Every structure is written in structure tokens, then in C-alpha cells.
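About this split. The held-out portion is used to measure sequence recovery: a designer receives only the C-alpha cells and must propose an amino acid at every position. Recovery is the fraction of positions where the proposal matches the reference. Here is one held-out target exactly as it appears in the evaluation file.
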């Protein structure tokens, strides 16, 4: 199968995505609408949103993210974001997704979590009723807000559990606080039925990944690519089966990992489980199929592309009923890799 045919097959077949933030999935048109309603001069038109995609490093991206969040003034706005996200899942044939939803951001905005959760739940439930696939939630805390704010995220969930939530993660500025500061937060997860995930190895080095493994015991790591610089750490990740949810366009855009020197293939060939994801598709202007195209351009074989596709389902926390049927891509992988 020629590379183009294979990528076409990827676009058409059912996929899973495990690293996707609710706010970052906003469509440019929605952002313009939210800005207009908020009386903000930030995003007067779609072209201005696209212009903001050229930011300065990770700090520039986090500043854009903050600008987006400031436009969210009421719970229904989160419903808008959720509908943007589900429309994207349908158009991309993503039949299983784990979405980061951040009660910590909602708290910062001064909105009521229960109302926000209901607005998001309503959009996600409608998506599932339509038969386009399943969505699960990863409750997200923000690292630079500190461990107390992270505990409050779990307190909210303990008081009113959201059945759709299957995991808990830590995003935000990786360099702000060490993972060990959150060990007491992560110790609560098993009791709450939440699987541990964490953002690490994006702006931080391999030490940040090692520290996260030691103190937080994640089942998956968002990004994690910095681990490639430490062979012992790579072996540990492979042996323990801790998957890395890798986002090539995101790494490129924030300047953390230029595509030309990205270690994703090295990690894959060292036996680490890798899934591909978009992180913030609305803000980076990317698609999941586009991420597979980039992996192919880096030199991934068809067997490797198929392995990553399968990993998207296998590394999910609740994917069983949506395991994809064998396709020519995965059949080719089995016979030729
Ligand atoms: Zn992320």
C-alpha cells in the first residue's frame, strides 16, 4: 500500500485520541463569537485567531490559552466548547476520546463547577446517543496552581462524582513545581476510581519524567518525549507499559521539540507504547490524521503507524467496546512488521 493510500485509510478508519484539552479544541469561529460577546478586542475575526497561532514558545502558548479561558463567562460557554469538540471527533472518525476537563480553570474563572460539568456532560451525552463514539473525561489540575488547588479538584469529584471521569491529570507549567509536591494528591486517586496521568517531559527534561514516575505512578504520560535522552528511563517506560500520548504539532508549535529532531520514532522502536494526539487542535490548527501524516513523514513504517493506531485504543482507560476492527492497515502491519 502506498503511503498516500495508507494515510487515506488512517483518515477513514475509527481512531482513538487520548490527549485533548476541552478549551484547546475551540474552533476559531467560536472564539470570535465568545470575544465579541465578552466585548474583548482579542479575536475580532478568524484571521486574528490564526495569527495568534504563531506564538513565542511554550510561555506564548500558555498566554494564548489564558486569553481563551478569560472569554469563558458562563457555564453554557463550556457547552459550546464541548460541541466544537464533538463535531471534530465526528468529522475525524475518532470513536473513543479521553478529554481533559479542568475544574481548576473553572474555579479560577469563578464559575460553578456543577453547572459547567452539566453543560459539558449534556454535549458529550448527545454525541454518544448519536452513535458516533464514546468520550471519557480526565479531570485536570493545573500544576502551577499548586497542590491545594489539585486537592480541591478531587474534593469536587468526591462530593459529586462524574461517572464519565476515568482519570486525573496534571497540566500547566511543568517547570513550576516538582511532581513530588503532588504525591498526596495522587495517593487519593485509587480510592476515587481515577487512573493517574500527568503532563511531563514536554518543557522539562528526562528528570521531570523520572520524578513523575517515582512520585505519581502514572499509567500514561502526556508528551513524555524528553525521556528519550535517558536510555534507562526509556527501558523503564517500555517495561512498565507506561504509554506516552505524543503531540507532534503541539511540540513543534511551542518550540519544545522541532519535528526534524523529534524522538518519537526512537521511543517507539525502543518498545515504548506511543499514542498520537492533537493536544489543542483548535489552537494549533491540526487534526489527528495530520499527526499521523507527520509521523509518516518522519519515516514511520506502515507497521509502526498501525501499532500507534492500536495503542490509542489499548492505552485508553475504558475503550473495550470500541476496539477497532482489523483494517488493511493493521492487517498489513501484522504480516509485514
Ligand atoms: Zn496537553
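Reference sequence for scoring:
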Amino acid at each position: 500500500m502506498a503511503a498516500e493510500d495508507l494515510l487515506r485509510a488512517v483518515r477513514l478508519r475509527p481512531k482513538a485520541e487520548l490527549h485533548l484539552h476541552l478549551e484547546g479544541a475551540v474552533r476559531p469561529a467560536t472564539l470570535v463569537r465568545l470575544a465579541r460577546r465578552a466585548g474583548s478586542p482579542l479575536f475580532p475575526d478568524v484571521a486574528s485567531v490564526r495569527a495568534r497561532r504563531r506564538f513565542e514558545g511554550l510561555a506564548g502558548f500558555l498566554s494564548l490559552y489564558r486569553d481563551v479561558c478569560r472569554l469563558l463567562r458562563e457555564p453554557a460557554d463550556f457547552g459550546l466548547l464541548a460541541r466544537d469538540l464533538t463535531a471534530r471527533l465526528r468529522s475525524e472518525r475518532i470513536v473513543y476520546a479521553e478529554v481533559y476537563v479542568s475544574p481548576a480553570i473553572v474555579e479560577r474563572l469563578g464559575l460553578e463547577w456543577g453547572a459547567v460539568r452539566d453543560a459539558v456532560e449534556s454535549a458529550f451525552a448527545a454525541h454518544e446517543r448519536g452513535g458516533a463514539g464514546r468520550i471519557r473525561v480526565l479531570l485536570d489540575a493545573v500544576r502551577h496552581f499548586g497542590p491545594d488547588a489539585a486537592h480541591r479538584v478531587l474534593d469536587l469529584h468526591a462530593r459529586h462524582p462524574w461517572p464519565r471521569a476515568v482519570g486525573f491529570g496534571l497540566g500547566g507549567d511543568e517547570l513550576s513545581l516538582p511532581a513530588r509536591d503532588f504525591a498526596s494528591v495522587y495517593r487519593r486517586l485509587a480510592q476515587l476510581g481515577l487512573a493517574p496521568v500527568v503532563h511531563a517531559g514536554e518543557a522539562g527534561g528526562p528528570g521531570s519524567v523520572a520524578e513523575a514516575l517515582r512520585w505519581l505512578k502514572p499509567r500514561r504520560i502526556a508528551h513524555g518525549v524528553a525521556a528519550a535522552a535517558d536510555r534507562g528511563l526509556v527501558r523503564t517506560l517500555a517495561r512498565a507499559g507506561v504509554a506516552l500520548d505524543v503531540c507532534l504539532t503541539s511540540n513543534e508549535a511551542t518550540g519544545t521539540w522541532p519535528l526534524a529532531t523529534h524522538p518519537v520514532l526512537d521511543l517507539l522502536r525502543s518498545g515504548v507504547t506511543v499514542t498520537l494526539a492533537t493536544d489543542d487542535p483548535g489552537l494549533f490548527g491540526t487534526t489527528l490524521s495530520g499527526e499521523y501524516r507527520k509521523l509518516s513523514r518522519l519515516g514511520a513504517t506502515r507497521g509502526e503507524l498501525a501499532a500507534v493506531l492500536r495503542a490509542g485504543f489499548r492505552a485508553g482507560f475504558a475503550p473495550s467496546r470500541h476496539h477497532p476492527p482489523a483494517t488493511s492497515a493493521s492487517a498489513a502491519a501484522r504480516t509485514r512488521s
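Annotator remark: The chain has 18 helices and eight strands.
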